[in-house]
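Input/output pair, single chain:
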Amino acid sequence: MDEQAFLTQVKSIEIGKHLPEAIYFHKDSFDTIDGVLRDFLIRISTAIKLTTDEWNVVKLYKRSFRISFLNYPSFFDE
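Output:
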């Protein structure tokens, strides 16, 4: 996936928390995003050797080709 494809995919996301610079969403929402983006995110997390237990929220930047895998253990409690 190149930068333009990434930005187009990010723009189409309707779920999660939308801020001016980024979108945050929980990994349980992966089935609601485009399959190409979902597969890309899973491949990236695997490539950097993050297990699915080490992150539960993804931050996708709206203006650059950047991704953050975040861990909020009490996500559903708060």
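The mean pLDDT is 93. Residues 16 and 25 are 4 Å apart (CA to CA).
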